[in-house]
Amino acid sequence: MNAILAQLLNGLDKGGAYALIALGLTLVFGTLGVVNFAHGALFMLGAFCAVAFRQLITLETVTLDPEKLSPWGAPLEIRTPLAQSWFGDFGGVLIEYSVPLSILLAIPVMAIIGIAMERGIIKHFYKRSHAEQILVTFGLAIVLQELVKAIFGANPISQPMPSVLRGAADVGVWLGMGPNVLTYPWWRLTYFLFATAIIGAVFAFLRFTTFGLVVRAGMADRETVGLLGINIARRFTIMFGLAAVVAGLAGVMYTPLVPPNYHLGMDFLVLSFVVVVVGGMGSLPGAVAAGFLLGILQSFASMTEIKSILPGIDQIIVYLTAVIVLLVRPRGLFGRRGVMES
Amino acid sequence: MTMTAKTLFAMSRRDLITLVIFTLVVLAMPMWLSPLGAAYPGLMQKFAIYAIFALGFNILFGLTGYLSFGHAAFLGVGSYTAVWSFKLLSMDVIPAIIFAVILSGIFALAIGYLSLRRTGIYFSILTLAFAQMSYNLAYSVLTPITNGETSLQLNLRDPRVLDLAFAPRAPGLPSASLFGHTFSGLEAFYFCAVVLLIAFFIAQKIFSSPFGMMLRAIKSNQTRMNYAGFNTRSYAMTAFVISGMYAGLAGSLLAITDPLAGAERMQWTASGEVVLMTILGGVGTLIGPVIGAWLIKYFENIFSAFNDSALHHFFGFVPDGLREVVVAIRLQICWRRLAIDPRPAVRACRRVPARRDHGRGSAYSRPVRQWPDPATGHCFAPAGGGVTP
User: Fold this and answer.
1) What pLDDT is recorded for position B318?
2) Where do the TM regions start and end (chain A) (predicted)?
3) Residues of A with CB below 8 A from B128's CB?
């Protein structure tokens, strides 16, 4: 029972990441009708926003200590982060909380990247076939990935989480079990809550604002909304920017869990496409539900008890689920009729 | 007999001319590629092999419009089967090819049976899912069959039943042979080239046959075909299996020119590459995918052989500061064209010296190839180097 609960919890954070990426993919697909293979790269760019932010605020001045020597006999180097020398203790806090604070950097950066991508390249491919859209966005993803590799190198760069959130929460106590029965790392819990908050915000935005109303109307019938004199293209561009921000934030907060490297995006891309299709192309709740479902299934499949019965199941569970769902429910769990069918 | 042979080989005048020209172009490859700096056997073999892969992919994608994103799985199955045939039966290439084609055909039948129930992007995702499953399993649970991360390779203790029944075990690792004749120099390339020509001929026949017409009709309007009373699924299924067999054939040829099969051949980026080749050359045309395959393989090879100094030389006309930038960018792009997974490159580096120890190498005659080191990002020549022609 406890093991099952523990796996359920373990699946939540990964599921949160899948759900966030799939949500963005579905937004882009639902609004612009574009199959965006560069979406994984946006996740990766978000992660590198966190890396860049940390590298910026940990720029150091190096002075040589006149008296002390290091154990090797060389003069001892004193490294003072500039942030600390400028802002004092507050600089230390900045460095400590670099990952959550990089959200502030990531939001404008990702929005600009997203909108530039849409206006610069993707806009020219609305009327082309999906195969061509896949090709051009795939190429874009490779270019972005290689740029990141050129700037940050090929090795993963680990990002420390704030020390407050290190260690694990004793979830068992909250549920009325004994202490240390069921623990869950604080950061994973944070990630799950963060993901739910973002998902909630996106849904609320679409549901309760006029802008969201117009966008939903545009998703249902773009032509009519255009005829009513609304500049729907501009709103869809903004939605692309929003999708980029969502993917970027998912990436920022994911960095303490998995040190980001340049092919992080590609690793998540295929999975998030599978998530979108399992959820049903064009269905936002479907993407979220499928994201969490697959995340949880994956963590269940990696239990040793299950692996001893079905060896290798942890490697294929996501794809296997996708195959079964597609064969049993052709349009995915929540898919609508006529979407992406020739 | 004469009648069937006549219909079997009957071609329109245009097809015949295309075939003759294509034959001349392929067989003359060593000549016209040498001014381009690509006339060494290793690369030309790849040209022939990936042309077969793209040809087969085009029979499915070009004719029926079904975009498979998992064709690399069949390539991998073909490679593994061929290496196993070398290990268990004989170093002769004929059984290796036959087994590889049959097994990848069966594999395609199983995957196609399920995947073809859906169309459009759902079909693509299904094939992608099957291929990724194969890839992940090849790396993990199926290690006894695939040898996992270290790749399946020949071994001094292989049973090789047929070979050893007729001749005593010779020292060192054997090489692939055709009826007892071991390939040397350009022979392996010419063997691949002849296979390519046969594959091209079959593709031509398919394109011009009523069956090919039926596949085109599926692409343009499957629903109408169904209403007209055709069972389109079985036609699409046949196309899928044929193109899977082409991929298996290409995979077995990869194993013949270099008896080693790794799971990375099945990764989805490899499937993406053949899609890229086909679209680059022209979907649905007969010759297009072949050209696309050649272009991609050529540029991949040429660019990955570029190193810092070659680039500096090449961009010598650009002002100094700018040149650094250009060279840096070019290098980044050249390294591992789809630089997603550094493992194959690293493994390839480790592999090269080992090959020479076994005294083989004729098939690998090519200029020293520069491999990028994934850790530092610098290009370096592998220790021991390639064998210069």
Assistant:
1) 57
2) 15-35, 42-59, 101-122, 134-152, 191-215, 236-257, 269-297, 309-328
3) 270, 273-274
